[in-house]
């Protein structure tokens, strides 16, 4: 079978190589999944560069989330999973840019027939992260003002939808007219083009000077720094990631004086420490999808052969929504 593998670290378009590899065999408490679709995520880029917080041994296959069919079971796995369509988080280093992968059974989630393979692959990481961040970590309330940075991206678009489903008033930032339109189409009340002007004054005006109650920040760097200028009393800044390339410094004196919280969101830790919670969140996301409250924003489905170039576009913010690769 074929799999994209990284043999040396660097930019994805130069270090990914399509190899012929052996079909993986599931170990105890693992399943083997025939991959129908794989979502592209920014951590895939970081893994190729060697900049992700955990580094798999070379060579490895990136691809953090897949949709497909369970075709083989390891010891200790419930036989009822065989033949089921699922979302899965592949075993680390044995990622989804391949024809078949293996995944721990604890990270496998059955999906309904109403969810397409592409939508299923695009849903798991971003919507799980958004739901955990907004509800578990920020305790978002109906009527609160939610500011979502990079709202047209996969992570941001999920947060916009989840915020609206929770009854929040959603503000979004985006870069350029096309991405601004995407956020408006998703239902954001106010969308600010950060290339055309600063978002701080716009957020304050929208909230009558109060500021945003919750800020969803997958960018970091200067975006975080400016966010501290428009966070409300008892507001919560959610640290989702650092696509801007710089880790911001949280000034604790400012946190104290303005009485707000800076809240880390490491969704992967819940998979290790509270896996049952992730399954409960999955059930809630399936309910929201069935009601039409959420639907993954997929800008492009592409052949698996185009993964390196697509990851390069993702790295330079040349995309909106989610990219999904299929064989």
Find the count of extended strands (DSSP E, 2+ residues). 15
The name CATH uses for the topology of the largest domain is Rossmann fold
**Continuous helix count:** 11
pLDDT averaged residue by residue: 96
The top-level CATH class of the largest domain is Alpha Beta
Series of secondary-structure elements, N-terminal to C-terminal: EHEEHEEEEHEHEHEHEHEHEHHEHE
Determine the strand fraction and express it as a percent band: 25-35%
Q: Could you give me the name of the CATH homologous superfamily of the largest domain?
A: NAD(P)-binding Rossmann-like Domain
* General shape: globular
How would you describe what is shown here?
33% of the residues lie in helices and 26% in strands. With 327 residues, the protein is α/β, with parallel strands linked by helices. It has two domains: 139 residues, Medium-chain alcohol dehydrogenases, catalytic domain (Quinone Oxidoreductase, Chain A, domain 1, Alpha-Beta Complex), CATH 3.90.180.10; 141 residues, NAD(P)-binding Rossmann-like Domain (Rossmann fold). The strands form three sheets. Strands 3, 4, 5, 6, 7, 14 and 15 form a seven-stranded mixed sheet that branches. β14, α11 and β15 form a beta-alpha-beta unit. The model has no long low-confidence stretch (mean pLDDT 96).
